[in-house]
Design goal:
The protein is α/β, with parallel strands linked by helices. It folds into four domains: 127 residues, Rossmann fold; 162 residues, Glycogen Phosphorylase B (Rossmann fold, 3-Layer(aba) Sandwich); 126 residues, Nucleotidyltransferase, domain 5 (2-Layer Sandwich); 170 residues, ATPase, nucleotide binding domain (Nucleotidyltransferase, domain 5, 2-Layer Sandwich). The protein is 39% helix and 17% strand. The protein is built from 22 helices and 23 strands. The strands form five sheets. It has a six-stranded parallel sheet, with helices on one face. A five-stranded mixed sheet has the order 13-12-11-14-18, sandwiched between helices. Strand 22, helix 21 and strand 23 form a beta-alpha-beta unit. Helix 3 packs parallel to helix 4, helix 16 crosses helix 22 and helix 18 packs antiparallel against helix 20.
């Protein structure tokens, strides 16, 4: 409502010129007259200012007037938020500005693809993210309750109110007014405290305001109707709302940063990319339909979405601006088909790599890494895994925040967080159900919510064995293989089963507990409480146990071996003794290899994979023994299975990264 300049002045900018260009009337003709009035006034202003670059934002009709004037006066134009798709005249205006602009800053990968498809020069496109996300993702206000009370009343609680923001659809004004009327009826029936913002000044807004007044919204005890809320306060209001409803781009873009539920009404935002927090009611033609949407969405909490930005857009844009050569020819170049490959470049024309934050929770160490789409570990951080839940979660968050900050410096765009952990995991909810004895205080732990809330990133969690299988499927021997099994041979024995290219979790998320396949009814006791499990024979812990028995009986060390007095006996000592001819150590390893081989035979007879991948530090010691047992014990129809040793250096981290990279790159909203 023509008062934005006050916010600019509050930010200590000097305004050189104020132009009044909005013609009142709020209809189609008034919009055209407003553009015409701006075109008449702008040449004189631009002649006096003589800018090197004109930054034009968004898709409003007044921005079109500015871009038209600058283009005709040979002024370079940088357009922010081009390439996006929505459902109104804004689409046409946005794309028209794109054709006039010389440089482009877009918010999403899809928007970048659209700009390339529109024949814009790929070298002049920057995928930066939305600048407002820099503010949103850093917005922390401990006194948010006072803001909520100022706008909605003293008795209102967080997550117990609604923010409504609905604008006219200029290509179908009559229908948008009817839809607004139905929305207000639904909100009145829903009976929750609601902050209603007035519509913008597009054609049809005057009629929408009449509807508000006809229904007494400004005097209704459940409603607060306002024309403007300062941005910093608006952030807090939507961040803590039970729901946002309407057809504003704010709902499908910015609000996703907080995971606040959104109901998007009608066609005004058709084509926009949205997070899972948005429920679309495309044909909002009845009050009941809108009311049902409110009942479904109100009070929910979704993971924070970063489709539109990661909080680092402004530094990228500044770098881009500084790189512009004002001596290069002003004439635009269009890159007509064939279009270049869809490669996102920053201003140094270096690929900003799509990456994941991978977290590996082991019995001893806690590791976090930045992993690229190609499986390269760009940066890795390692700390001892704390013994308590509180200390462990605090360290995970600290390491992830540090890695996410470093990602910008190493030119990586973090798509999400993948966590590999021991124990039984519900990957749908991101909860560790039961832990192994190697990780203490790690049962019934919700990992997704606190990490997603802190980092504003989607989070995936799975068992370490499943993650190893995912790593093989994306980066290792399992790539392109329809049915295979991965066995981890390390401190414990675990694994994952891939059937028809998909990971099997089982009805209670207990599938692929391969270490607990029983191969002897009277075998050694396992940590799970049973007897004769593969893990009780072939795990690192089992080998360490047998090595200690030999050492206690002075039967471990042979010529060529030595141990310091304080040195702890390990599986490595047993393997070394066997290599140096210790027959008792050789026998223990042979028994372990046989037990593992029998377990693999059981797997072959159960799921019939075409490939078995042995992973972990003990894989090389077992591979030949496993092949021998298969030849001796397996049915002839499965004896031709391939048994290989993994060539992946770090399957746990790569598997955790695969949780993110596989999901985010194939998901269609």
């Amino acid at each position: 409502f023509s008062n934005t300049y006050r916010m600019i002045e509050q930010d200590d900018f000097d305004i050189h010129t104020r132009l009044h260009t909005i013609v009142r009337g709020e209809d189609e003709a008034a919009m055209v007259e407003s553009v015409g009035l701006a075109l008449v006034k702008l040449p004189d202003v631009l002649n006096r200012l003589k800018p090197d670059i004109m930054i034009v934002h968004g898709d409003r009709f007044d921005a079109l007037a500015l871009a038209t004037s600058a283009a005709l006066m040979n002024i370079r134009i940088l357009h922010i938020e081009g390439g996006e798709v929505s459902g109104t005249i804004d689409d046409s205006i946005r794309h028209a500005i794109t054709k006039l602009a010389h440089y482009h800053v877009c918010c999403t990968r899809s928007a970048e693809q659209h700009l390339i498809a529109m024949c814009e020069d790929h070298d002049r496109i920057l995928l930066a993210g939305c600048p407002s996300y820099d503010k949103l993702l850093s917005a922390k206000n401990k006194d948010y309750m006072s803001i909520i009370r100022v706008w909605l009343g003293e008795d209102v609680k967080t997550r117990d109110y609604i923010v409504a923001l609905q604008h006219p659809v200029t290509t179908d004004i009559k229908h948008s007014i009817k839809m607004f009327e139905l929305t207000l009826d639904a909100l009145i029936s829903f009976n929750k405290r609601t902050l209603v913002l007035f519509p913008n000044v597009d054609a049809g807004s005057k009629e929408m305001v009449r509807v508000m007044r006809k229904k007494g919204i400004e005097h209704h005890p459940n409603f607060r109707a306002v024309k403007h809320v300062p941005f910093d306060q608006f952030i807090q209001l939507v961040a803590h709302a039970g729901c946002m409803i309407g057809n504003s781009s704010c709902g499908v873009r910015e609000v996703g940063a907080f995971g606040t539920p959104v109901i998007n009404l009608g066609t005004r935002q058709t084509g926009r990319e949205t997070g899972e927090n948005v429920l679309h009611v495309r044909d909002a033609d009845t009050q009941d339909k809108i009311l049902h949407a409110l009942q479904l969405q109100f009070g929910k909490q979704y993971p924070c979405s970063k489709i539109y930005g990661d909080g680092n857009a402004v530094p990228r844009i500044l770098k881009f601006l500084k790189s512009i050569d004002l001596k290069e020819p002003l004439q635009k170049k269009f890159c007509f088909p064939p279009v270049k490959d869809n490669i996102s470049q920053d201003i140094d024309h270096i690929l900003e790599t799509q990456s994941a934050l991978a977290v590996d929770l082991g019995g001893t160490n806690l590791r976090v890494a930045i992993v690229s789409m190609k499986g390269e570990i760009v940066k890795k951080y390692t700390q001892l895994n704390p013994k308590t839940y509180e200390d462990r979660l605090e360290l995970i968050l600290k390491m992830c925040v540090e890695a996410a900050s470093e990602a910008v410096n190493v030119n990586c765009r973090i798509l999400g967080v993948g966590i590999s952990t021991g124990g039984r995991v519900n990957p749908r909810e991101g909860i560790v159900l039961h832990s192994t004895k190697l990780i203490q205080e790690w049962s019934s732990v919700d990992l997704r919510t606190p990490i997603s809330d802190a980092l504003h990133l989607p989070v995936w969690v799975d068992n370490d064995g499943n993650c190893a299988a995912l790593a093989e499927r994306k980066f290792g021997h399992g790539k392109g293989v329809e049915n295979f099994v991965t066995l981890i041979t390390g401190t414990g024995i675990g694994g994952g089963i891939v059937h028809q290219h998909e990971l099997i979790h089982g009805s209670s998320f207990c599938a692929a507990e391969l270490g607990h396949i029983v191969v002897s009814l009277d075998g050694p006791e396992c940590l799970c409480g049973s007897q004769g499990c593969i893990e009780a024979y072939a795990s690192g812990i089992a080998l360490q146990r047998e090595a200690k028995k030999l050492h206690d009986d002075d039967l471990l060390l042979v010529e060529g071996m030595s141990m310091k007095k304080e040195e702890i006996v390990s599986a490595a000592h047993l393997i070394q003794a066997a290599k140096l001819g210790n027959t008792k150590a050789e026998s223990i390893l042979r028994t372990a290899g046989t037990a593992l081989g029998l377990g693999v035979v059981n797997i072959l007879h159960t799921v019939n994979p075409s490939l078995v991948i042995l992973s972990g530090v003990l894989a090389n010691h077992y591979v030949n023994a496993v092949k021998d047992v298969i030849n001796q014990q397996a049915l002839s129809s499965v004896k031709n299975v391939d048994v290989v040793v993994s060539n992946l250096a770090d399957p746990a981290l790569l598997g955790a990264a695969s949780l993110v990279l596989d999901y985010t790159t194939r998901r269609i909203y």
